[in-house]
Design brief:
304 residues, alpha+beta, 4-stranded mixed β-sheet, 61% helix
Length: 304
């Protein structure tokens, strides 16, 4: 909320703009075993701890940003049971809507489908339609549009850094809001891989089909992670660029053009990570406070 989180191999930083316009920055180290340890070099196996840590970091930074962005609303505290209960409910609904529901819908017409492949293909099309439809629908909400604009600011800042351009709002603004390593593309890849894997299972009984959809989520996520990682590393290849086209197109739903203030927040987060990673040395920009949350709010961030 009103912020951007950037993660390196050693640390993460989240920058959030307070209601009074000040930017607050919080940093902390990440678990080196996940990002630089032996497991980080094991294809497929490395995906699960990295994805789980990304989820946890995302939730913790959401708590931090909510505390900062809603600082004027003293009665609101997004932490503890409320925050983690929200995660549990969200994950449950996500699995139910995007993995189980498509299967139940196909079950209504399965008697008319002679082909196992066709049945699983229709299930995949329904799943992908639900994902795209959901993203498209929430994009009309004003608060989500701001989140998507900050998402665009994040991508512009990373694209600027990777191109060697100055990390200044005027220079960063010229870059695209699309990026090949985006999580939106990951969702699309997961949907496509799920069609391929589930097609190999045929059509067992409905109970077993539902269990397979849930139990194979880690396998599908691991494969999806490796596909995204490979594509990003070979994005200059013509065939890979063609493969990335649907992913980049879908990102147009989850990114918006950011304003100058949003770019400043994203740049601040990235600069702090670069300092923490030892890649640059920079003075704190004017109007930026480091870990300026009240002590109890900062302490509420769970540690790995």
């Amino acid at each position: 909320m009103e912020g951007v989180m950037m993660r390196g191999s050693k640390s993460m930083a989240v920058a959030v703009r307070k209601p009074d316009g000040e930017i607050v920055v919080h940093t902390e180290p990440v678990d080196p075993r996940i990002y630089t340890g032996p497991v980080s070099r094991w294809p497929f196996l490395r995906a699960l701890p990295m994805l789980w840590d990304t989820l946890v970091l995302g939730m913790r930074t959401l708590m931090f940003s909510a505390d900062v962005a809603l600082a004027e609303e003293e009665e609101f505290e997004f932490k503890g049971p409320l925050a983690w209960g929200t995660v549990a409910v969200s994950l449950t609904l996500g699995v139910a809507i995007f993995f189980v529901a498509p299967l139940l819908l196909v079950g209504l017409m399965d008697r008319y489908l002679a082909s196992d492949i066709l049945s699983n293909l229709i299930e995949g099309i329904i799943r992908l339609s639900l994902i795209v439809g959901y993203i498209w629908a929430v994009g009309f909400m004003p608060d989500i549009r701001r989140v998507f604009a900050y998402h665009g600011a994040e991508h512009k800042t990373i694209n600027s850094y990777e191109a060697g351009a100055p990390l200044e709002a005027a220079a960063v603004h010229r870059f695209t809001t699309l990026h090949p390593r985006c999580g939106t593309g990951f969702l699309l890849v997961v949907a496509v891989i799920s069609v391929l894997i589930f097609s190999l299972l045929g059509r067992p009984g409905m109970v077993w089909r539902i269990l397979s959809r849930i139990l194979l989520i880690p396998v599908i996520a691991g494969l999806g992670y490796e596909v995204i990682k490979f594509s990003a590393a070979h994005q200059n290849n013509r065939l890979v660029r063609w493969f990335l086209t649907p992913s980049l197109a879908l990102q147009r739903l989850t990114t918006r053009e950011p304003d100058h203030d949003m770019l400043e927040v994203a740049i601040t987060a990235l600069k702090r990570v670069l300092v923490e990673e030892g890649l640059t040395v920079a003075a704190e920009p004017a109007g930026v406070t480091s870990d300026a949350q009240p002590a109890e709010a900062v302490a509420s961030l769970p540690r790995s």
